[in-house]
Amino acid sequence: MPICRYDGHSHAEPTGYDQLTFQAEVKEEIANDEVRASLYKKAQAADAKSLATTLNTSINKALAIAKRYPTVTVSTGQQSTYPRYDKNDKIIGWTGQANIDIKSTDFAATSQLIADLQQTLVMNNLNFGVSDVKKDALDQKLMAEASRAFQQQAKNLTRAWDARGYRVVTVNLSSGNNYPRPMYASMNMRSESADASVPSQNFESGNSTISVTANGTIELTK
Fold first, then answer.
1. Which residues sit opposite 108 in a β-bridge?
2. Contact 102, 118 (CB under 8 A)
3. Between the CA atoms of 126, 129, 134 and 138, what dihedral angle is there, to the nearest 10 degrees?
4. What's the sign of the alpha-carbon dihedral 138, 185, 105, 38?
5. From the centroid of its chain, how far is CA 100?
6. Are 143 and 212 in contact (CB under 8 A)?
7. What is the CA radius of gyration of the chain?
8. pTM confidence score
9. Could you say which DSSP state residue 11 is in?
10. Which listed residue, of 42, 46, 113, 116, carries a Cα 20 to 30 Å from 101's Cα?
């Protein structure tokens, strides 16, 4: 969450009297343009080495498949291994799980990649949000709007308190977002390729609300 701070001390030392603290918020709803997903392979084996071999082979195969989709960013995720015990607390085997994470603004490619990976991996979650590039651009726009809204509110308060003017003591600009809860895409299935074992999904990405708040203190001049 980017935060900008303006300190008015360089212009005039505040006296501590006739100060008002308030905030102005601006927000805008924007279409989600990025999809994120996590898939995993879970396996069991009699020994840790065999388990690691199974997990590594599955993840390496998944990464090789993902290379067919250059517009999708793929990274290895969390991996865990733990022993299984019998009633006498003796180790009788091992269980492990390995994850891969994907993200992209190319919904069609991501949908097909997920379908390809689901032939051997299990979907853990799928959600949508605003990409950093798109959010940063909107943040800059909303910060300017929030600054103007703060100044207008300061002028309104100055008149309401019968003051001659005001000077800024401090102003903080903070950006936030309200993403929709993680959701699966529309369940209307369609096959992108005739030989795909798992059909890809049509994505319904929804919207997010991006907001910027200007919170600060002014000192009235009589």
1. none
2. no
3. 180
4. positive
5. 17
6. yes
7. 27
8. 0.72
9. T
10. 46
